[in-house]
Fold:
Amino acid sequence: MATLPSASPSCRAHKFGGSSLADASCIRHVADLVLADDAERQIVITSAMQGTTDALVALAKTAASGGHWHEPLTRLRQRHLDTAQALLARPEAVLAQIDRHCDELAALLHAVALLRQPGQAALDRIHGMGEVLSTLLLHAHLRERGGDYALLDARDVLVIRQTDLGALVDWDASARLLADWRRAHPQRRVNITGFIARDPDGFPTTLGRNGSDYSAAIFASLFDADELHLWSDVDGVLSADPRIVPEAVPLPALSYCEACELAYFGAKVIHPQTLTPAIARNLPILMRNTFNPAFPGTRIDADGDHAGRGPVKGLTLCSQLALVCLEGTGLIGVPGTAERVFAALHAARISVVMISQGSSEHSICCVVRDADAQAACDALKDAFARELATAQVQGVTVQTGISVLAAVGDGMAGTPGVAARMFEALARARVNIRAIAQGASERNISVAIDSSAAARALRAVHAAFWLSPQTIALAVIGPGKVGSALLDQLQSAMPRLRERHAIDLRLRALASRNAAWLFEHDDACDWRARMQCPPSAADLDGLAAHLLDAHLPHAVIIDCSASDSVAQHYPAWLAAGIHVITPNKQAGAGPLARYQAIRTAQAKSGARFRYEATVGAGLPVISTLRDLLDTGDTLIAIEGILSGTLAWLFNSFDGQTPFSELVRQAHALGYTEPDPRDDLSGMDVARKLVILARECGLSLSLKDVEVENLVPEPLREADRNRFLAALDTLDAPMQARLDAARRQGCVLRYVARLTHDGQASVALRALPADHAFAHLRLTDNCVSFTTRRYCDNPLVVQGPGAGPEVTAAGVFSDLLRLAGSLGAAL
Ligand code: ADP
Ligand code: ASP
Ligand code: MG
Structure:
């Protein structure tokens, strides 16, 4: 399968959409592209400059409703005049032509304003003016650069008839007119207006909105081109509308049938009728990006992409639809009901987008355009009047505000499980499915859903088919010491995790104490650079909503703050299915009612709450305890050195250096909290003990822990500087405690203790010199678990238990354990 254009075909057709023609520099770029093309013959079809057709449609409406159209017309005229000035070395002739066309437009609008009810012919003339102007500009520019291009106004040759099926080409008449035109214009290269045409009587008409793709396919056929390149502003046909699904990926190849289904169900990137002339001549279509011409884009041909990944190629969303249902017990098994429904709708000239009938035949639903909903309802009521009167049919209902989401792919035929995957994703995103249809070709599965859920549905289904099941949207709150270390660790590990373990981490939000940054993930963007940008005006609720908004398979909030108010959000986040990971002790040790609310929310939604780093930083303390309990062991007691700061102080305190001096050193080394009393008070250790106790199923709170506060009473309430100045008052009592311990051959350690009956205390204790806690180094933490199985010799977890790097690593391992439980092979 080749995605690159073939070498020097004899005729290439190029069509440039509005976005490729936004201003003079875009037009210059388009000229570069076509001038660089070495095809023997070439046709270039152009649509109007970006936004022009919308402006013309609005102008006609304004004029018809008696509004002020002069000013917007002046703006439109000026935009084209300015573009000509910027684009052309000798713009005079073109400026005069633009003025002439805009004068004609003014005359038409004047007539519309007078008539108030404009005919279609007048409207078509107005709507088509954008293509006349844009083609004129490109043509003049190409000529100035030495290109020998003829200029063809499609209204001179392209004859179409408007039918129920859209605009149909009169190929014979068009070919005849073109042959006449070619006699006077034999150039090898031609500029052609897209979108516009003539009707059989020679009056101007159009191919309908977005119709210049169709124009291009028609002219490619009339000029016998070998390839058609449709240039737009995206890298080809993407797996879904990139405006709704930022993760959408370009598709290398599509079959004509797949492209037809995508276009029919609303993929704006290609007009549905474009395919018909292409299929008839087996003409390959290449969807390319004007602004990324080196990218091959999407090739559409008869073969498509046999080697392509997955059964689903693309997803589309078609909106502004309505669901019309005919329901009745009298329909069961009655032959011909469906036929009568469609005959009635056909007679009312209503086109049916989708049909769904349950096998019980109790109801028949069809999806029609919103604008046709009432007419469809009336037509069915008419057709089934007799059955309604005799209650054989219970009613005809209409539900507006419906969208159809379609999954398309040739590979769906014969592949089981595609529908299941789609429905599971919709269920997880809490999208209610109103009706389902699968074509017999099995190339398309469509579901009708409420339009309010459409974007959510599209993202969720896209994630289910295109993303790794371990794709996780991440938010990190509190980029302080631990948060920063974690973000650095995440950033460097992300590519490896994605490649080796299919764990796809997507950082989507950051929040500090008073600001939040919400964004789309980008591997290339450093998190620190994100925080240099102005913050998004959002609170933590907005952050959670943004995290869920992408509908990635999973969402995780990592709270690296120490804030109680952040912990306050956990129950709601968990209830919404967001996993929470934190080194913040507030939730684990805070009010029992909130802790229980967290557990309840977790149990309901299945979201995980992990907090390994709240005790012993990166050490596996909580997971060890969990493993013991989950495997059926029974706890007898936990004893531990749970504060790195206090461990360091008492490991270093040998009577040579006064205790106050050691506190000062620890403070200077950054081992203590900014206010060392937060460590010396024992509260931090007590919190950790509460967390462990609750893990064991004990309903313990902070007030239940007996705490020995090492700060002398008079200094507890003093301001920080006064406390630091008065540190010496600690020296004499501490020295006395040390001397007393030594006399008994003991050492001093600040120890936390919990017994299975809920007795909890944290205190400075004299321990025998051969105790496990007597030989710790530096800031090491140590936790010993005495259990039924480990009763003679306790199970001990020991190692560095403080510092941003190891704490962040503890948080990170929680995240990986979570990914593992979601299916990642680690
Ligand atoms: P042009 O003016 O070049 O014809 P359009 O605006 O008509 O361009 O169509 C291109 C736009 O279609 C893209 O910018 C993109 O936003 C949108 N689009 C919607 N669905 C898709 C899809 N599946 N693949 C690519 N683009 C899509
Ligand atoms: N300019 C026309 C439109 O905006 C046709 C096209 O762009 O394809 O609908
Ligand atoms: Mg288009």
The longest strand covers residues 314-327. Residues 92-115 form the longest helix (24 residues).
